[in-house]
Amino acid sequence: MHESFFRYQNFFWLKVAIALSAVSIALYAWHTPSVVANGGTWLGYTLGTVAAVLIVWLAWFGARKRDYSSSSSKISGWLSAHVYLGLALIVVATLHTGFQFGWNVHTLAYGLMIVVIVSGMYGIYLYAMLPGRLASNRQGMTREQMLDEIRDLDETALGLADQIDSRVHEVILRSVEKPGVMLSFWQQLTAGKLGKDPLDSAERFLRGYQNDLVDATLFLDAQPQSGAQATMMYISNVMAGMEAEKVDKLRALMETVGRKKSLLKRTRRDVQLKALLQLWLFFHVPVSMALLAALLIHIISVFLYW
Ligand code: HEM
Ligand code: HEM
């Protein structure tokens, strides 16, 4: 989705960020305040104001992004600026502090800023990794196609189960009724790995049922061949034929259930990868809000105690 934001307009925002950092470093090196370097000198105020404006602007990003949702190149531009200027903040805000840290609300604002920036880097990592992972997991299918095929497999499985016997039908019905994909957010994140999967129980049941059937078929085949029991043999042969047919149906059913299981696993993985992206934003955005609050307190408090 955002493949091009890294190199947007020939790394324009990267250049701006480097220039901003370089100017800040040069001013900091050149500046020789009469007191120890800190946020209260003219350079301290300047860098602090630049940093605060940047933070407010970056936090505004979500709303701006929605305004521009129609044009993907503008979104790339915003994201590019967001990422590079966000990283430049490390230089600008750190020089603003003059490396004076302590256990106070000022350092809290600084710490929150670092947490937001580091979480932003993790977000970029997700954005870079996820499209590839999503694509290889989908194997050329869309989420809808996967869900459609799961529905078809369910119908085939129910049809086959119906032809075997009512117990098998009941087990398959149970595995079909349980919601397979639309799970709670937590289940989405864990790819439905928590709790018992009705498909696993269905598979186990079918395997046991198959063993019983095969045993019964072998037993019927192995009936005594003596002439006195000709009628008995005839009946047992017919029954063996019927059982063998069931074994075939069961094999087809097990293949269907196996295919559904692997498709369901891939669909859940798809949901999981998407949920991971959402989870990351649930962190990045609220910590940004906390940062804004701490920053406001920092600014108000330095003016109050000035
Ligand atoms: C309009 C913006 C800002 C103004 C006016 C401002 C003002 C100041 C002032 C006057 C000081 C010196 C306080 C003192 O020596 O007691 C200071 C220190 C500091 N500022 Fe800012 N600041 C601003 C933005 C920021 C931002 C964006 C951050 C980081 C997120 C930040 C983090 C700090 C820290 C960590 C200190 C050092 C506190 C200490 O000495 O323990 N400031 N700021
Ligand atoms: C103090 C600095 C930062 C603040 C206040 C901030 C705040 C925000 C906010 C409010 C959003 C909007 C989320 C939404 O509603 O969709 C956002 C999105 C994002 N931020 Fe940050 N951010 C900061 C720094 C960074 C940095 C340094 C990076 C990367 C290294 C980054 C990467 C991202 C990404 C990838 C998105 C998602 C864009 C999208 O959904 O298209 N952020 N940020």
Describe the structure.
This protein has 306 residues and is mainly alpha-helical. The protein folds into 2 domains: 3-138 and 277-304, no CATH class; 143-275, no CATH class. The protein has helices at 8-30, 42-59, 61-67, 72-97, 105-138, 143-164, 166-177, 185-189, 198-221, 230-304. The longest helix has 75 residues, at 230-304. The structure holds protoporphyrin IX containing FE (HEM) (2 copies). The site of one protoporphyrin IX containing FE (HEM) has 25 residues, from helix 2, helix 3, helix 4, helix 5 and helix 10. One protoporphyrin IX containing FE is lined by residues 38-40, 44-45, 48-49, 51-52, 55, 93, 96-97, 100-102, 104, 106-107, 109-110, 113, 295, 298-299, 302.
Fold topology:
Layout: H1 8-30, H2 42-59, H3 61-67, H4 72-97, H5 105-138, H6 143-164, H7 166-177, H8 185-189, H9 198-221, H10 230-304
The protein binds protoporphyrin IX containing FE (2 copies).
One protoporphyrin IX containing FE binds near residues 124 and 288.
